[in-house]
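STRUCTURE:
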């Protein structure tokens, strides 16, 4: 019983370490040939948004919205990939030989 509790404590510690590492990792998503750049952490928290001045007019509002959506989705997809890679690596440490790890 103690061995299981010890393993659970190790898993929690490892998960906390992964979360901390993912907070330090940033990924970008861009759209419109770099006119919009969105940066998020590996934990999918928004860090920054860069918008080219050419999109800061009433006439460009719809284009800006579309590009923000595209750039944000790209950044979030990349963050998800980073997160999945970290989790798989952690799984190999705790569950060696399991399929999918």
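SEQUENCE:
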């Amino acid at each position: 019983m103690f061995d299981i509790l010890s393993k659970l404590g190790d898993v929690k510690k490892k998960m906390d370490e992964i979360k901390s590492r993912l907070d330090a990792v940033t990924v970008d998503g861009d759209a419109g040939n770099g006119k919009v750049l969105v940066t998020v952490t590996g934990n999918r928290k928004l860090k920054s948004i860069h918008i080219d001045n050419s999109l800061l007019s009433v006439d460009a509002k719809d284009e800006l919205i579309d590009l923000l959506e595209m750039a944000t989705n790209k950044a979030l997809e990349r963050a998800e990939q980073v997160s999945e890679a970290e989790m798989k690596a952690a799984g190999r440490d705790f569950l060696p030989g399991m399929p999918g790890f």
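REMARK: The chain has a mean pLDDT of 89.
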